Amino acid sequence: MLVIHNPVAGPRRAALLWRVVDTLSDAGERVRVVQTEHAGHARALARAAARPGELIVAAGGDGTIAEVAAGIAGTGALLGIVPLGTANVLARELRLPFRPRAIAATLAFRRTRRLWPGLATSAAGDRLFVQMIGVGLDAAVVHQVPGPLKRRLGPGAYVAQTLREMIRYPYRPIRVALDGRIAEAGSVVVSKGRLYAGPYRLAPNARPGEPGFTVALFGGCGPGAALMYGGALVLNLLPEAPGMRLVRASQVEILSESPAQADGDAAGNAPLLVRDAAAPIEVVG
Question: pTM for the whole thing?
Fold first, then answer.
């Protein structure tokens, strides 16, 4: 079992990982841990180790998980998860455990479920994502949130940065094509799963194990709408918020120029094309 650990998660979260590793080792599992050194390293490490049936474990946040998933895509390797990130959206989506002994037991039993990632193509190339692509205000926040603040405050860093961005974000309408149908919105989130920003509902009928996406179109535009959507988020009422539309689509084109985020990490800029990855991945959990 190879564990790919993103050390940026911080020392307290690393302690959780080592408790998982100790539990697995005590149970007779052979575990090798390697740390990432730069962006893209997790993908390269996973690709080098991937074999059919091999368990490759991502120990980090959603961005690290997406990199490891990209590395094993098409190889038949299994994806394991030790959630060490700020929001851990995918782990919550799949109802994976967060306690060390339960994580270790899940990895040891190797029961799997299917996850069908998405693929975003822009001028910078292809990027696989496991939970979402966001374009608009949320992406501007992800691009600007300072790393040290994120490590110190966790989710609170995004709240603080959102308040800053609400003042200076230009709020230009974003044009999208949903299976060829043109629409406009203040912000757009193309989601594989039900959850957003942690445990909060966004797309209740999303199906992460199947092809296709649920596209959230935030109809409101401007600081007032951003405050309203933020309040609906923390009350778990975002799908019912005024101006919100949820649309199923197989292919999504973001036609406007705008910052983009993928699984909570900065992902360059739109325009971009979003479609299904070539095949699903088996996730242990």
Answer: 0.93
